[in-house]
Design a protein that fits this description.
Elements: E1 2-5, E2 8-13, E3 17-22, H1 33-38, E4 43-48, H2 64-78, E5 84-89, H3 91-102, E6 107-113, H4 123-139, H5 141-148, H6 159-169, H7 174-185, E7 200-205, H8 213-222, E8 227-231, H9 237-240, H10 242-263
């Protein structure tokens, strides 16, 4: 099933407590195909295409991280999916973090996978992120993906998975990517992480060379009560080892849902 809210396409599968999947800056809802089916037996799983990605309309202007968070809250409200578990990979995890900080009423829990505090943690990383859209414009999406996609994978990754990751990245469009990159460059959630009040699971691929295990460990130690699990794979661990990823997420969501039911 597919829904459209304010130009944003959302794919839905299953029934149960709602889970919103938020993809990375080089992805799309297609990056979560395995999670759409893997989590559907016990959950209503929603996977969005962020503005300017996949089947969603291009943004007219950069949204900013606060704008993405507002949009997530609106999508969840419009689709009667509040409160939802938010599962964000990389950039999607940064969006999920902002939603938890600014719209906690729509959030049941957080899963931050191969994510980060944002690229605004220092000037060098912010500048590198702001340079990426120019590289995309210069190379074109296909060549951009050919050069960048391998960094998302662990050494010796399944060639079929590698092709899939590259194919999805080759579908990115400049308006969406530029808006996403600017939102990352402006963001440093580090000083605010201690304010997050929902149950949080941090996942990271042991070979992640994009955001890295150390960054995920910092998220886990900074968010009250959060726990860290290191998975096989690289930055795209949810695509390289989908069964392990789904198992970790499903167990965490079940634990949170059981706690909610007991509280009632």
């Amino acid at each position: 099933m597919t829904s459209i809210v304010d130009g944003v396409q959302v794919r839905t599968a299953g029934h149960g407590s709602p889970v919103l999947l938020l993809h990375g800056i080089g992805g799309a809802s297609a990056s979560f195909d395995a999670q759409l089916t893997g989590l559907a037996p016990k959950h209503r799983v929603l996977a969005w295409d962020a503005p300017g990605y996949g089947g969603s309309a291009d943004p007219e202007r950069p949204l900013g991280m606060a704008g993405y968070a507002r949009l997530v809250a609106r999508v969840l409200t419009e689709l009667d999916a509040v409160p939802a578990h938010l599962v964000g990979v990389s950039w999607g995890g940064v969006i999920a973090t902002r939603v938890a900080l600014e719209h906690p009423e729509v959030v049941r829990s957080l899963v931050l996978a191969d994510s980060t505090r944002g690229s605004g943690i220092d000037a060098e990383r912010a500048a590198a992120m702001r340079a990426r859209p120019n590289e995309l414009n210069r190379l074109g999406a296909a060549e951009f993906a050919r050069r960048r996609a391998p960094r998302l994978l662990a050494p010796g990754a399944d060639p079929a998975v590698a092709r899939r990751v590259e194919d999805v990245m080759a579908g990115i469009r400049l308006p969406g990517y530029a808006s996403a990159a600017e939102s990352m460059a402006e963001t440093d959630h580090g000083p605010r992480l201690s304010r997050i009040s929902v149950p949080t699971l941090v996942l990271v691929g042991e070979h992640d060379q994009v955001t890295g295990v150390a960054e995920s460990r910092r998220l886990a130690t900074s968010i009250p009560g959060a726990r860290l699990e290191v998975l096989p794979g690289g930055h795209a661990a949810n695509q390289e080892f989908p069964h392990r990823f789904c198992a970790e997420v499903a167990a965490f969501l079940s634990e949170v849902d059981e706690t909610v039911e007991v509280a009632r």
